[in-house]
Amino acid sequence: MGLKNSSEQFGTVAKYLHWLVAAGILILLFLGIEQSDMERGDARTYIRFIHASLATVVFMLMTARLVWRFVSPPPGHPDGIPGWQRMSTSLVHWGLYICVFVQLSAGAMLTATGGKGLPMFGFFSIWLPVEEDHDKHEWWEGIHGFMWRPLAALITLHVLAALYNHFVIKNDVLRRMTIGTK
Ligand code: HEM
Ligand code: HEM
Q1: What residue ranges define each of the domains in the chain, with the CATH number in brackets?
Q2: Ligand 2 atom nearest to 77, measured from its CA
């Protein structure tokens, strides 16, 4: 199995990036939703700090992923997939990229317009060239508080489609993103 994608399956780089980003986003959704019900205080501040630190790592991985997709394009659809499924797969994949980047950018902007740097687990912070601005902070907060819903809906569809291909259609779609095809 090579580092690059082949015409049949994903290579090692795309697989690691896919699963690291997937795990990161599921943890971010969990931490984000958890902290939204909490009272102000140290515990909530700490969860937000971990959430934003992990999100900054996911931002880097996701950017690497997009760049890698141009360096090494993904394999085509496996044989026998009907036209409507090819179309919906592409729509969901691009929808995921868009929702993830909007959510990441909104998180970064709400932090920056709140007058803070993007944290990295306390090692350092990344300061964006953005002025502190209360109105803009609230605007980005609104986008961030909304966008995770369509993102979570697309992730659900995406996971159901992967399981449907694997267990019902019994093709190689899940294998080529995990253990590989024979
Ligand atoms: C795909 C990536 C991300 C996901 C899925 C995500 C998810 C969430 C969710 C579900 C919430 C709760 C929203 C609510 O209260 O209604 C939240 C809040 C928050 N997120 Fe994210 N987030 C992501 C990226 C980021 C980034 C990049 C940052 C900053 C570096 C960030 C910083 C924050 C902060 C500070 C809050 C608390 C906001 C507030 O209510 O004032 N997030 N996030
Ligand atoms: C949670 C966040 C997730 C995101 C943002 C995400 C995003 C994506 C994207 C954008 C692709 C297209 C590959 C590319 O061309 O770049 C993809 C492929 C794939 N994902 Fe995910 N994914 C996530 C989670 C999952 C999970 C939990 C599963 C397992 C059930 C899964 C299974 C797959 C499979 C099997 C493929 C390959 C599809 C194919 O061969 O056409 N993904 N994912």
Answers
A1: 12-177 (1.20.950)
A2: 41
